[in-house]
Specification:
The protein is of the alpha/beta class. The protein is built from 17 helices and twelve strands. Helices cover 44% and strands 16% of the residues. The strands form two sheets. It has a six-stranded parallel β-sheet, sandwiched between helices. The protein starts with a strand and ends in a 10-residue tail after the last helix.
């Protein structure tokens, strides 16, 4: 099998790293060939085209060509609503790729439910997130001093608003400090909104060292319907790197916490957040959390496990007969009067 990846971003883009780059080593181990140079020549050589959320007219043209010659086409979305549109997935282009794709993959059951509700999809499958930052095996919980509890939030600046409503409660926790790891360019704008917070410029090479100086991570998906449907990628990454995650009672986080046996780390409001953090202040409690959660997280979300799930989806696709492929490609040239929003 040879796979052609249409990347949405580069390695510094979290979703591209989680959805594509994290799988490459496992693909190599399985002697699966791949490329991320989306040329017509590579389309001819590949059996699977994996288009990661970003859409442009040239991408649609390449997907049309691939469809006509019988290539398997997967369209992958781990963002919905305005976040997806920011990747060029306008209603018009989105309707075209949904016609051309054999399968749509997404990152969580909640995202799948929204897609099934809003779009006329033939097949949609959940491809869960992989543990980030190229971890080869889970790392133990470090024996950090309990004198000053370091609590970290990390993520894209566009999600920082979800932390803000909890800021006052977090800053009142005794013998603690709050760390935010974000893009360096965002820090000057964020600093006035998050007084008393210690900012760490996010860097692909150094972030995990910063993460492991912290006792806990706090992660939340409170917000819009699309925010609540986000994947568990930061939670599983924190746990695999040996840092217990305290997470909002939102769909993917809650399901993961229940499966991993760490429901005590869930919170619904600021008071519950503080209580969950205090429960995990003792080193023994954090050690117990990691010992319970890591085996489950690694079994289901290691890059090797997600690569196997991805290849299974690829193998199961059966391209349409030629007459159906021609019909679908032609339909993408018609004026669009009823594109999904």
């Amino acid at each position: 099998m040879q796979i052609l990846f249409f990347r949405a971003g580069k390695e510094n883009t979290a979703s591209t790293r989680v959805r594509i780059y994290s799988l490459l080593a496992a693909l190599q181990e399985r002697q699966v060939q791949y490329s991320d140079q989306a040329s017509y020549r590579n389309i001819l050589k590949s059996q699977v085209l994996f288009i990661q959320k970003r859409l442009t007219p040239p991408t649609i043209n390449r997907a049309r060509f691939g469809k006509l010659i019988g290539k398997k086409i997967i369209y992958d979305v781990d963002d919905l609503g305005p976040a997806l549109r920011s990747w060029g997935a306008t209603p018009e282009l989105l309707q075209k790729i949904l016609i051309l794709a054999d399968v749509v993959t997404t990152g969580s059951e909640a995202q799948r439910s929204i897609l099934l509700r809003d779009y006329p999809l033939r097949q949609i499958k959940v491809l869960p997130a992989a543990v980030d930052y190229y971890l080869r095996q889970p790392l133990p919980c470090l024996d950090l001093s309990e004198d000053d509890l370091r609590i970290i939030w990390f993520g894209d600046v566009s999600n920082a608003h979800m932390l803000q409503s909890y800021l006052a409660a977090l800053m009142r926790i005794p013998r603690s400090s709050l760390v935010m790891a974000v893009n360096k360019r965002a820090i000057p704008d964020l600093s006035p909104r998050f007084p008393g917070v210690h900012f760490e410029p996010w860097d692909l090479q150094s972030f995990t060292a910063v993460l492991r100086t912290c006792h806990l991570s706090v992660l939340m998906h409170n917000g819009s319907e699309y925010d609540r449907a986000k994947t568990n990628n930061r939670m599983i990454t924190s746990i695999a790197w040996g840092v217990p995650a305290v997470v909002s009672r939102t769909p993917d986080y809650e399901a993961t916490a229940q499966k991993a046996g760490v429901e005590e780390a869930l919170f619904l409001n600021a008071d519950e957040l503080v209580q969950a953090i205090e429960r995990l202040r003792p080193a023994a409690a954090r050690q117990s959390y990691i010992e319970k959660a890591q085996p489950v997280i690694w079994r289901e979300h290691s890059p090797q496990a997600i690569t196997e799930a991805f290849l299974k989806i690829c193998r199961e696709i059966q391209p349409d007969p030629i007459y159906k492929r021609i019909k679908d490609v032609l339909s993408t040239f018609r004026p669009n009067h009823s594109a999904p929003v």
